[in-house]
Amino acid sequence: MTTTAESRYAMSDAEATDYVDRGLSHLWVHTQQREELAKEDGLRVFVRGKGIHLWDTKGRRFIDAMSGLWVVNAGHGRTELAEVAARQMQELAYINTFAYTSKPAIDLADKLASLLPSTLNRLFFVNSGSEAVDTAIRLAKNYQYNIGEKKRYKVIARRGSYHGTTAGALSVNGAAALNKAPWEPLVPGAVFVENVNCYRCPFEKTYPSCDTFCARTIERTIQAERPETIAAFIAEPISAANAVSQPPAEYWPTIRQLCDKYGIVLIADEVINGFGRTGRWFASELYGFEPDIMTMAKGLSSGYLPIAGIAIADRIAREFDGEKARTFAGGSTFGTHPVSCAVALANLEIIEREGLVENAAKNGAYLQSRLNALKEQHPTIGDVRGRGLLIGVEIVKDPATKELFPDSAGLGDTLSAALVRNGILCRAGNIVNIAPPLVISEAECDDLVARFDGALSETEEALGVR
Ligand SMILES: Cc1ncc(COP(=O)(O)O)c(C=O)c1O
Question: How far away, in angstroms, is 18 Cα from ligand 1 center?
Fold first, then answer.
């Protein structure tokens, strides 16, 4: 933690304590245990952001090494986006989105169509990634219905992947960290297949001799479930939740081919992957496939306002044209919000103007090479992987056998605390997620690596492997 001139944003101790007390009493912080938050320095309250940095109420500066939640692609503190929001609110804050639209909505849809793969030309805007996933599934089923495939209700998803918390998204969530039992029964029809992970292959095979078995074997599931019942397949091009595992080159073309063969709508969830995160505007480009539907959120506005959406391929959208009964019904009051659309458009302009996609590719490769070099001093680094600034570092007890630390070692808590002491905010456990804002400079990458190095040394000492 570094205290800088920015400490002018700090509060008095009494004021900071009062915020924590009132927060603990009245605010439900997502996914956290109140008891943990009540511990010394448990609830950290932030007051300011600039570039890749955040400051808390105590004036401490941190590197936002995960861009919040893979969100703040354009970096913190963009006054330009605040001005765009203020201007749009003054001109037109809201319009009945079920019947009319606004200039920024059309400008944003038009801009996205120019950035997206050539077949994705129609945009439907909502408010969160989960809502985008739900909408994509609903639209895929509705498409099947409209073309006469009325028995297709199943959705194939992958174990280990995360897609959100609304009912539809939750049902296709395969992330083991999220225990779905309390919410069952969920939406029927979710079918899970194994994920891709070349570091820890679920089939205990090795690439390339496996011939991408993990993708090919999905055909067996499709056949067993009966293709005429399957509406869609959903997956992230690179799954952040699934250890940031890199699919081999053949993986996505194989899945595209299977979806085409069996009439399955291919949904690429680019909620994290999109908007430059992987060094391309969209990660689908990396793997040379075009989805039928793409979900997007997070980096679409860099988090300056909530907005998400789905991009729809022409051949899918076409099936909603014609009679009234073919209409995709069910909208969302705040979907296509004029102010969010205006801010998202300005955010895309910043990403383009400042070459942030290219920066993510260049400095992402640099950051990965620096992290890889740490392996020499740190045998606990089993693997460094990812594309652009979507990076995962896998921590192991033994790099030769890839044995993980047992839960009882408390790796996640120890490493997270060490990272915070060294001024880094990110998610850390067996996988450390590193995904800073795309504005990160080479010098800032060096600073991040030096701090990570320090945090890992402290952790290794605490775990007795140093
Ligand atoms: C791949 C993916 N899809 C969907 C979601 C859900 O997005 P939200 O949290 O905005 O609802 C997330 C959230 O992290 C995500 O990572």
Answer: 32
Select 79-353's CATH number: 1.10.1610.10, 3.40.640.10, 1.25.40.10, 3.40.50.720: 3.40.640.10
Cis peptide before 185 (omega within 30 of 0): yes
Amino acid letter, residue 259: C
Query: Whole-angstrom distance between the N-terminal and C-terminal Cα of the chain?
Result: 23
Distant-in-sequence contacts of 14-20, Cβ < 8 A, 24+ apart: 15/57, 16/45, 16/57, 16/58, 19/45, 19/57, 20/45
Which tens digit of pLDDT belongs to each residue from 273-308? 999 999 999 999 999 999 999 999 999 999 999 999
Residue 52 CA, ligand 1 centroid: distance in Å = 21
List pocket residues of ligand 1, CB cut-off 6 Å.
Answer: 69, 128-130, 133, 162-164, 236, 240, 269, 271-272, 297
pLDDT of residue 2: 47
**How far apart are the C-alpha atoms of 381 and 398, rounded to whole Å?**
9
How many CA atoms does the CB half-sphere of 18 hold within 13 Å? 5
Give mean pLDDT, residues 18-31.
96
pLDDT over 90 for what percent of the chain? 96
Could you read off the pLDDT of 418-453 as tens digits, one per residue? 999 999 999 999 999 999 999 999 999 999 999 999
Task: Report whether 395 contacts 401 (CB < 8 A).
Answer: no
2-77+355-462: which CATH topology? Aspartate Aminotransferase, domain 1 (3.90.1150)
Give the mean pLDDT of the chain: 96
* Helix H or strand E encompassing 419: helix 411-421
Q: Tell me which H or E stretch contains 169.
A: helix 167-171
The model's pTM: 0.97
